[in-house]
Amino acid sequence: MNRPTGHSFAMTRFTAISMVVANGLAFGIAGQAVAQDVAAGGERDLQLQSLQQQVDAQTARLDGLRELLEAQERNVAELQRALDAERLGMARARGTQDAAVPVVPTEAVAGPSTQPVAQTASADGVQSAPEQPVGRAPEQSLRPPEVAQIFDQPGVLTPQGTFVLEPSLQFGYSSSNRVALVGYTVIPAILIGLIDVRQVKTSTGTLTLTGRYGLSNRFELEARVPYVYSNSDTVSREIFTGSAIDSVFNSDGKGLGDVELTGRYQLNRGGPDKPFYVGWLRYKSRTGTDPFEVVTDCVTRCVANATGTGLPLELPTGSGFASLQPGLTWLYPSDPVVFFGSFSYLHNFKREDVSRTVLTGASAPLPETTTEPIGDIEAGDIWGFNVGMGLALNEKAAISIGYDASFVGKTQQNGGDAPGAVRVTLGTLLLGASYRFDERYTLNVALGVGVTRDTPDMTLTARVPITF
User: Fold this and answer.
1) Quick count: other Cβ atoms within 10 Å of Cβ 166?
2) Are the C-beta atoms of residues 426 and 405 closer than 8 Å to each other?
3) What is the pTM of this model?
4) Are 391 and 336 contacting, i.e. CB atoms less than 8 angstroms apart?
5) Tens digits of per-residue pLDDT, 383-441?
6) How far is CA 341 from the centre of its chain?
7) What residues contact residue 435 under an 8 Å CB cut-off, 6+ apart?
8) 274: β partners
9) Closest CA to 450 of 412, 414, 404
């Protein structure tokens, strides 16, 4: 067995030491790499946290910018609505259109809030222009254009929070001829019996105070309180006397009329070349003196007797029936005119156990009267429509022309047609003009001419709406 020499032992020892050193270096290098990896991971976490914070900040900033953009879009829409209203007002001279929508100052659109909108920062810090918001059509004017009012129901609603007080005065005149033949004919054109010829001339003046308040831009309430004065002259010949002298029977009446309450709601958003629709519901009370309360002259004749007048000694100021009337009004703006009209149905509520007071004798010191029962009375319902056209002359003046028609049904008594009840058709041709003095005061005048025999010959109405 050979023993190792000193040189080989030294070499072996050197080799072992070299291996230990190499292994140590290898472990040191590996540990340094691991430490570097850990340090790099921490830096990446910090970078991710920083980027997340930047993203959160930019998201919050974008949310704020989005709110600013929405506010600016609303301001632009308000300006567009005001511009549309001003154009309609300039084109048709319809009155206080500026009160319909608030005018937003230009500074509200281009204020300090527009500076941060110019640029937005991305996650990498690069400044870039924001994307433009998707275009949205401006809101159209909520309010229909005003026209010279010629019908009882206006088509323009009162703006929200605005009160309009409208005093008006209406004068009406009607005349009619009545020929009553009671007898029998021997040959054609020869009558043996009673011929009663009458001319009835009636004048009526109505002073009305109307108040309207806008609960919203689409809904308003209206109340009307009328005061009525009427006078009637009946010219007739004395019968069975052969007299050529006319006798005149006069009667008049004055007092509170039938109070009305109306609610109106705009159903849609119209605009130029787009119709507006306004639905409404009117309730009419019977606060006025009705035809059954006044005293009727029946001293010698009332209905079937041969002599006397049979006329009321005092004229009524109300219809005598409470009624409910729904309707729909439409307006169609089409430069340079506005077409308008409405459809309605009026229902009169039935009255039971009605009686009237009749004059049976002229005993001193008070006339002798009695009560005559009539029974259950239901006035005929009324279908109505009207149509018209408005045209502006300048910024303040406008004119309108229209036609109003009503179809009145037969009056029912005790479940059947009342004696002498007939259907009546009323037709009126109307001309109107309006002039706006300023933002608060407007004068409106309308003239109506009857085109059927049952319609008043003439009605003249003047209105002065005052805006508060």
Assistant:
1) 20
2) yes
3) 0.66
4) yes
5) 999 999 999 888 889 999 999 999 999 999 998 888 878 899 999 999 999 999 998 99
6) 13
7) 396, 397, 442, 443
8) 271
9) 404
